[in-house]
Amino acid sequence: MTPRPDSLSLAQARRIALAAQGFADTPHATPTLRTLLRTVQRTGVLQVDSVNVLQRAHYMPLYSRMGAYDVDLLRRASSTRPRRLVEYWAHVQALMPVELWPVMRHRMEHYRARRGKWWPIVDTRPGLEHEVLGAVRDGGPVTARALEDEFSSGPRTREHWGWNWSEARKVLDYLYMAGDVAIAGRTSQFEVVYDVPERVLPRAVLEAPTPTPQEAARELVRRAARSHGVGTGRCLADYYRMRYQPGAGVASAKEAIAELVDAGELLPVTVEGWTRAAYLHRDARLPRRIAARAVLSPFDPVVWERDRAEALFDFLYRIEIYVPAAMRVHGYYVLPFLLGDRIVARVDLKAERATGRLLVQAAYAEPHAPPETAQELAVELGRLAGWLGLSAVVVGARGDLAPGLAGAVGAGVRE
User: Fold this and answer.
1) 195-212: pLDDT as tens digits
2) Which residue, 339, 343, 338, is CA-closest to 310?
3) Could you give the CA distance from residue 329 to residue 346 in angstroms, rounded to a whole number?
4) SS3 string of 220-271?
5) Which pairing describes strands 93-97 and 46-47: parallel, antiparallel, or unpaired?
6) Angle (deg, nearest 10), helices 253-262 and 213-228
7) Other CB atoms closer than 10 Å to residue 191's CB: what's the count?
8) 361 vs 399: CA distance, rounded Å
9) CA–CA separation, 52 vs 194, rounded Å?
10) Per the omega criterion (within 30 degrees of 0), is the bond before 82 cis?
11) What is the dihedral of CA 343, 31, 220, 24, to 10 degrees?
């Protein structure tokens, strides 16, 4: 069904958005590398985050769309030749297709110009930048820990918990943001492994011409529009963390949107209940229904822009990891539950690997949740537990959905 080019109901906008994100794709019984790459083509990027209370962030969007898959597929795509994905600051820290590397060069130059402000150590210790880069070139792939003793001028400070990086780590972070080193993979402890780009990226990518800032902005907005299906200008700008309004020497998303509208790639539309102008990608699909049943990571593209999640799904969502326990409303690591084309519940989950249990520490239904929510969520949690290698789902008492969910889990509800 072809989307109408002038106005959309909110239900249509939701289905367009979810189809663009891969929730209308035909499932594969056994997901393969081709399935994974198709999924990343939909999401555009996979946000990387170290929190491992359930499963690391970059694995979860793939699971939500593909179902149970071998996580080694993602390691192969991002850590072995021919590399298909590479980490960069594309949304925030994220895995992106390698062909985006040339498009990000303007961003790399932006960070290079701010070296003394954001990474003062590269200027306060002359020569350190070149020494660290030389060590990576000569000894890479290498972790920051492996270079710590060689480049440390003293013991690391402890006054900034979580950011007390070694001097080698600080310089490597600058070199990575500037594109002088690339991430070759991560260790089993999630440490970054650095190497020079020519040993990480395909030669064709390295030799590809650098687009102008305007060309790069258009390409990023184009990709954001494909991944969103429909969105406001600020939605499109946020996807790759672009500046919406024009700035000094920086091509803006607003300018790129106007150019893509002129070219017919983006179609201005109104969306029911939205006060801001919206844009529909010309190739967006509008399926008659979305038959999704999935828990979504807090870092899933469907919900990572919280205002968009509220506008599309009437779902007010805030991650509470950094909120003191006594002040949390829903829990520590809360995942939305997508059923059909609505987000109908949220669950605070923890993988208790030592005991083989998936702990549901709290479960809450949304006001519009249908009667079958508990049963459908029970099925999904059983599937998730199996993928994580856990043998049981245990439901706690917190939340209005908890009693019904506990009953459905205890009854062994199956598809």
Assistant:
1) 999 999 999 999 999 999
2) 343
3) 12
4) HHHHHHHHHCEEEHHHHHHHCCCCCCCECCECCHHHHHHHHHHCCCEEEEEE
5) antiparallel
6) 80
7) 14
8) 9
9) 22
10) yes
11) -40
315 Cβ contact list (under 8 Å, min separation 6): 303, 309, 336, 343, 366
Q: In whole angstroms, what is the distance from residue 315 CA to residue 110 CA?
A: 35
Paired tokens of 105? 């060069």
pLDDT in tens, 70-83: 999 999 999 999 99
Instruction: Please tell me the distance from the alpha carbon of residue 128 to that of residue 119, in angstroms, as a whole number.
Output: 12
Rg of the chain in Å (alpha carbons):
22
For residue 272, give both structure tokens: 């029911």
Report the candidate in 44, 38, 8 with the shortest Cα–Cα distance to residue 302. Answer: 44
Identify the pLDDT of residue 2: 54
**Cβ(279)–Cβ(224) under 8 Å?**
no
Q: Read off the pTM.
A: 0.93
Phi, psi for 253 (deg, rounded to 5): -65, -35
H/E stretch holding 406: helix 402-410
Give me the sheet containing 266-271, strands edge to edge: 7-8, 266-271, 278-281, 230-232
Determine the residue type at 351. Answer: A
CA distances from 217 to 46, 144, 231, 263 (A): 19, 32, 16, 15
Contact assessment for residue 295 and residue 336, using Cβ atoms and an 8 Å cutoff: yes
